[in-house]
Amino acid sequence: MKSIVKIIQAQPTQDGAGVKLFRSLGTHLLPELNPFLMLDEIRADEASDYLAGFPSHPHRGFETVTIMLDGKMRHRDSRGNEGVIESGGVQWMTAGSGIVHSEMPEQSEGRLWGFQLWVNLPAEHKMMSPRYQDIKAAEIPVVNFPGAQVRVMAGTVHNHTGPVTDIVTRPTLLDVHLDGELNLTLPPRTLLYVYEGALTIGEQTARAQQLAVLSEESSLTMTGNAKALVFGADVLNEPIARHGPFVMNTREQLMRAFEDYQSGQFG
């Protein structure tokens, strides 16, 4: 059975044009756990904390996953994609060889609550063509258990397969609403982020705004009253060369990414 190896408390920070958020993966406490590179939670009731948004910025060599619980964000990118991510929706963007995009609030008041997860690409796929999957809440299957409800965004739970497809790291991405006990089969590399309440795995308890790194066994049993993101994928045993919005395998590739972006070759 999976157990909790480490618990990380999310740290307050700012990103974009000053958006206030909480970062649990991608800090000095846990810089990355390949293929997972970063996890941010945005939870703000005051518009001044999020209105500046995330103006146009580049990415290369990895994927961004945006999950909205409450509110609306508009995505635009240099490939001509545009769409609004609304409550319950998810967007999986593969930056690949390079893309420039913006993510801006589509609201001027009310709560904005969601997450962004960064997922690495294997070396052989880092320069793949960029692409974009925009999934509405109604397209996400919901699996009901006696002690939980599970929204399956990617991966398969009890023969229900999520709508995010053709991702090379074969991810599992679940939104779990727990009210009792739940048993799941998950990839060896799995993390869990509690965003409401508390849950127990084995002898340890993870609480709201805590990231739990899980051991490599396949079976997970959790109990409690909580809401949590569960995400797993294939392990990438490859070097990481990372700076800002670019994630490559070598310093030379990283420098090339900056050069290509500055010369207008992205998107």
Radius of gyration: 18 Å
Uncertain spans, ≥5 residues at pLDDT below 50? none
**Major sheet summary line:** 8 strands, antiparallel
Number of helical elements: 1
Oligomer: single chain
The percentage helix is under 10%
CATH-defined architecture: Sandwich
Describe the structure in your own words.
This protein has 267 residues and is mainly β. It is 4% helix and 56% strand. The strands form five sheets. Strands 1, 13, 14, 17, 18, 19, 20 and 21 form an eight-stranded antiparallel beta sheet that branches. Strands 2-3-4-11-6-9-12 form a seven-stranded antiparallel beta sheet, with no helix packed on it. Strands 5-10-7-8 form a four-stranded antiparallel beta sheet, with no helix packed on it. The radius of gyration is 18 Å and the shape is globular.
Task: Give a concise summary.
The protein has about 270 residues and is mostly beta strands. The chain has one helix at about 250-260, and strands spanning about 5-10, 10-15, 20-25, 35-45, 55-60, 60-70, 75, 80-85, 90-95, 100-105, 110-120, 130-135, 140-145, 150-155, 155, 160, 170-185, 190-200, 205, 210-215, 220-235, 240-245, 245-250. It comes from Simiduia aestuariiviva.
